[in-house]
Amino acid sequence: MKVVSLYARVSSEKQAQKGTIESQIAELERRISEDEEKLLNEYRFIDNGYSGSDLERPGLDRLRDKVGKGEIDKIYIHSPDRLSRKTVYQMILLEEFEKAGVEVIFLNYKTDKSPESNLLLQMQGAVAEYERAKMMERYRRGKLHAARRGSVSVIGKASYGYRYIKKGTTGEEGKLEINEEEAKVVRELFMWVGKERIRTIEVICRLKERSIRTQTGKERWNRSTISQILKNPVYKGQAVYGRTKVGQVKPEIRPQRNAGRQKSCSRYSQDKENWIYIAVPRIVDEELFNAVQEQLAENRKRVKRQERKVAYLLQGLTVCQRCRYAYCGASTINRRGTYYHSYYCCTAPSYKEACGNRPVQADALETIIWKKVKGILKKPERLINEYQRHQLGSKELLLEEGLEREESKLKRGISGLIDSYARGYINQEEFELRIKGMKQRLKEKEEEKKRIKDKKEVQEELTNIIGNIKEFYSGIKLELDQLDWLEKRSVIRKLIERVEINVDNITIVFRIKEFVTKNKQNQDIQAIRERIARPESE
Which UniProt keywords apply (predicted)? Predict the structure, then answer.
């Protein structure tokens, strides 16, 4: 009996709530019934609120897993854009299903394996992709127009202290209304900071003492939440639209553990001149709001003055090699009563066991890393030699001439063998057996020759990298040990991607691609990793 499955998707929670997913499923079930097939519940794969431009969807992942295991014979999908809105992704998935011997049925499109059918499918995918781009642009411009005419519907979720009143049936616009219970808390926050001049941590303590919960019902208030409330101009009667914009995914400084779904975009702050202010009911007056901003600025200055004593040169670069969480800087007191700084491994979430990787003394680690950086800047050849030793293999570069001779010999042998067969000196069976072996050996030699040629190109690029590092070093005006803390950190971040700390050693991953020639971004240039002994803790 054939195993039948269905796949359905909607791209937003709003669509899911409207029931469009149910209508898809109903149509698919009706078609399955018409085809006299039987659908089991375990073979229903649904993605509610997942974009069609992203391949990472739980329902789709489970479907692909089942297909990979050979458990499915036929998949019913409403239309190609439900599978993916990107033509490339559609082709990837359909090819994957075809290789597994799975038949795909679209309700609004009849598929076969002809070139014309494939072309039409790709054209439909391209049109769907175009329509989505146009829809997103219309949506963006529509929100921009609504914001300029003062509509609060573009703001999204109402801030703490407000509730959003939806657009009425009589046609009046949606609006923000003050939630008096929450607004009372907001006024107290502004009074505490603007009049009593207390810090954020003290605000959190007072909220905890009074058992005041967050907007989501949590007992614990975060500093970032308090800071966002105190900085938000909505409370002085000015809601802001356009504070951020969507852009390309930001590169991660270090590998992320348990990152979940891969992000398809990142948010970027916009300049204030691009902000659009929308009038809303105010909770605090402008004078108190400005007083709070002054106090927050004073608090930041005070923290910076305190943090000058505790600065971590490698902050943001250190990561635990065991659990992949970041190593964070912390100050502690030893038995002699003097401060020393340590990088210690971030503990796992409270529901998991801690990693157990020991702290490493900051001064010792920073000294070792800075010494390595100075050595590379002064003699970059050492770094390149280390790369050659691990990646290239000097002996292989000497084999090219020998390979060319063997390649020429094999080509002559193949030519002679063909001539012998043509003259009738050998029979067909012997000819096919010998020619197959010789062609295989020739292919291996050609592949090996290409691999060595690629490595020679890498070797040439490494020479350029040495020059680029020397040029960077020549641009540093002061002696390396005369650089201040910020300048040292800037140099370190230019050369080092991350520092991986293990139980008994440390691995430095260098940013070699930073120095690759701009117009020759060779993908074969791999990261250079150097392992060193871990400094002993006091």
Answer: Coiled coil, DNA integration, DNA recombination, DNA-binding
Decide: 24 and 59 in contact? Cβ < 8 Å: no
- Tell me how crowded residue 198 is: count the other CB atoms within 10 A of its CB: 16
Say how many Å lie between the first and final Cα of the chain, rounded: 69
Mean pLDDT comparison of 181-190, 272-281, 339-348, 417-426, highest-scoring range: 181-190
How much is the average pLDDT of 452-479?
74
Instruction: Give the CA diameter of the chain.
Output: 106
Q: Which residues pair with 4 in a beta bridge?
A: 39, 74
Question: Taking the CB of residue 253, how many other CB atoms lie within 10 A of it?
Answer: 13
327 bridge partner residues: 345
**Exposed, middle or buried: residue 44 (CB in 10 Å: 0-12, 13-18, 19+)?**
middle
In whole angstroms, what is the distance from residue 62 CA to residue 64 CA? 5
- Please report the DSSP string for 51-66 in residue order: -TT-S--HHHHHHHHH
pTM > 0.70: yes or no: no
The torsion of the CA quartet 344, 349, 350, 355, rounded to 10 degrees, works out to -50
How many CA atoms within 13 Å lie on the side-chain side of 87? 14
Instruction: Name residue 342's beta-bridge partners.
Output: 330, 361
Residue position matching structure tokens 């020479």? 463
| CA dist 104 → 21, 107, 122, 123, 235 (Å) | 19, 10, 15, 18, 54
Residue type, 506: I
Residue 128 is encoded by which pair of tokens?
A: 């769907």
Count other Cβ atoms within 10 Å, centred on residue 367: 13
Which residues, 6+ apart, have CB-to-CB distance to 49 below 8 Å?
10, 11, 12, 13, 15, 16
| Phi, psi of 147, rounded to the nearest 5 degrees | -65, -40
User: 24: number of CA atoms within 13 Å, CB side?
Assistant: 26
Q: What is the mean pLDDT of residues 390-395?
A: 52
Which helix (H) or strand (E) segment is 189 a member of?
A: helix 180-194
- 3-state secondary structure (DSSP) of residue 384: helix
